[in-house]
Amino acid sequence: MFILNEDSQRTEGRDAQSSNIMAGKAVAESVRTTLGPRGMDKMLVDSGGEVVITNDGATILEEMDIEHPAAQMIVEVSETQEAEVGDGTTTAAVIAGNLLAEAEDLLEQDVHATTIVEGYHEAARIALDAIEDQVLDVEVDDELLAQVGKSSMTGKGTGGLTPAELAETVVTAIGHVADDDGVRRDDVSVYTQVGASSSATELVEGIVLDEEPAHDAMPSTVEDADIAILDVALEIQTGEIDAEYAIDSIDQLNAALDAEESELRGYAEEIVDSGVDVVFNTDDVDDRVASFLANEGVLVFEGLGNSDTRKIASATGARRVGALEDLDTEDFGHADRIRTDSYGDDDLAFVEGGAAAEAVTVFVRGGTDHIVDELERAVGDALDVVATARESGEVVPGAGASEIAIADRIRAKAAGIEGRSQLAVNAFADAIDVIPRTLASNTGRDPIDTLVDLRAEHESEGRAGLVTDGETVTIADPVEHGVVDPADVKREAIESAAEAATMIARIDDVIAAE
C-alpha cells in the first residue's frame, strides 16, 4: 500500500537531522567571516551579472539563492533580527548555526532532541537574565547614542567618512523625529546619489524626491512655500465617446484653439488665484498650463507616485485634492524652502524646513554605486540601532564582552541543572562563545588563546572585550573605548537564534514531493 506519492522523497531519523543541521551550519558559516570591525566582504553575483559587495549579513543572506528549507529558517532569523532591531543579523545567524553544531554533537552522544530543546530553552532564559545584568547604569544621551551608531558601522564600508562622523549625522537625524512618545523611525529616510565623495553626505531637514519641474522656466527655489497636492489632469479634457468635428473655416479652427487655450489658462488661473506656491500633481500637466504657471512663478511637479505623494503629505501637512474647485488654503501644506538641483543627469527636489522638518533625510553621496549602496546599508543599520537604544534607554558592552558574560553566567547556572539537560545548557554556552572567537579570528588572533584571555580578564575585571582601535587589537573594557550595543539587539539575537535552532533540531522526518 502506498501512503505517499511514489515520486516523493522521504528522509527520516538521524539522516534528516544531519541534513537539516548541515544546511543551517552552512548558511551561518557563509556570513561568519563578515562579523566585527575586521570582518571580510562578500561579492555576490546574480545570474544577470549584477554585483553586490557587502559585509552586511542580512543583505548577503537575502541575495543568496538558498533553497534548502532548514537553511531558509536561518535566513528567517536574520530577516527577523533586521525587522525588529535593524542590526545584529550576522550575530543571530552565527549563533543559530553554532547552536545547531552543538546540537549535532549531543545527538551523536544519544542525547534526545527533546532534551536538547529543553536545555536550550533554559539556557536562553539564563542568557536573557545575564543581558539584563549587563545593561549599563548610565543615561543614554546623544554622546552614548553616537557610540552606539559608531559601533554598528565600524568595519562597514563608509567611504571617505569615518563611522564617528556618520554617527553624529545619524544621532541628529533620530533626534529630529524623537519626542516623549518615542521615535518616529519611518520619518527618517536615506537617499543615495552617486557623483561626489562620501564626505558630501549631509542631513536634509525634510525630504528628497527624484523629481524635476514641469517647465524649465519655473523657479528653482521657493522660500516660505505653500504647497498643494493635486490628483487632477491639468490638460484638455476628452470624453469617453469617440467623436469627430468638421471644421469648415479658419475662423472655426481658431475658435477651437482659443477654447482649448482658454480651458488650459483657466486651470492655471485657478491655481494662481488659490495663492499656492508649489504644486505636486499625481497626474499630467499640459505644457501650456506649465508655461502659464511658470510665468506666474509657481513651481509644479507632475506624475508623482503614491509613495512620494504620501511622503509629501506626511512631511508638509498638505491634503490631496481631487478637483481644482475644491482647492482651499486649509488643504495647503508648508515648507520653509523647496529647491531643485541637478546631479549629473538626475534632477532632485528638496522639501525643507517648516512642517517638512518633522521628517528628515540622510542624503548619502559616493563616487560609485557600490560605495553608496554599502553606505546606505550602514546608515540604515545605524539609524535602526540608535532609534532602538533611544527608545529603550538600554545599552550593553560590545566587542564580545556581553557574550563572554552570558556564556559565563550560563555555565555557572548549568551546575544546578539536573539530568542530561545540563549538557545542552553547557552546549548553549559554548555556542555563544562563537562570537568572541570569530571576532578574534577576524582580527588575525588565535581564537582559542584569545577566548582564554577574555575569560580571565572577565573574571578579574568584570568586563572584557576585544577592542579594535585602528590597527591595534587589545583585550580591554569596551565601555571605556565607546564600544556599546543596544540591549535589544542582544536579546533578539539570542531569542531568534534559539527558536530557529530548536525548531530545526526537532525535525526527524523530511518529506519532499517531486
TrEMBL record:
<keyword id="KW-0547">Nucleotide-binding</keyword>
<dbReference type="InterPro" id="IPR053374">
    <property type="entry name" value="TCP-1_chaperonin"/>
</dbReference>
<dbReference type="Pfam" id="PF00118">
    <property type="entry name" value="Cpn60_TCP1"/>
</dbReference>
<dbReference type="InterPro" id="IPR027409">
    <property type="entry name" value="GroEL-like_apical_dom_sf"/>
</dbReference>
<dbReference type="InterPro" id="IPR002423">
    <property type="entry name" value="Cpn60/GroEL/TCP-1"/>
</dbReference>
<dbReference type="GO" id="GO:0005524">
    <property type="term" value="F:ATP binding"/>
</dbReference>
<protein>
    <submittedName>
        <fullName>Chaperonin Cpn60/TCP-1</fullName>
    </submittedName>
</protein>
<dbReference type="InterPro" id="IPR002194">
    <property type="entry name" value="Chaperonin_TCP-1_CS"/>
</dbReference>
<dbReference type="InterPro" id="IPR017998">
    <property type="entry name" value="Chaperone_TCP-1"/>
</dbReference>
<feature type="region of interest" description="Disordered">
    <location>
        <begin position="1"/>
        <end position="20"/>
    </location>
</feature>
<dbReference type="InterPro" id="IPR027413">
    <property type="entry name" value="GROEL-like_equatorial_sf"/>
</dbReference>
<dbReference type="InterPro" id="IPR054827">
    <property type="entry name" value="thermosome_alpha"/>
</dbReference>
<keyword id="KW-0067">ATP-binding</keyword>
<comment type="similarity">
    <text>Belongs to the TCP-1 chaperonin family.</text>
</comment>
<dbReference type="GO" id="GO:0140662">
    <property type="term" value="F:ATP-dependent protein folding chaperone"/>
</dbReference>
<dbReference type="InterPro" id="IPR027410">
    <property type="entry name" value="TCP-1-like_intermed_sf"/>
</dbReference>
<dbReference type="GO" id="GO:0016887">
    <property type="term" value="F:ATP hydrolysis activity"/>
</dbReference>
<dbReference type="GO" id="GO:0051082">
    <property type="term" value="F:unfolded protein binding"/>
</dbReference>
<keyword id="KW-0143">Chaperone</keyword>
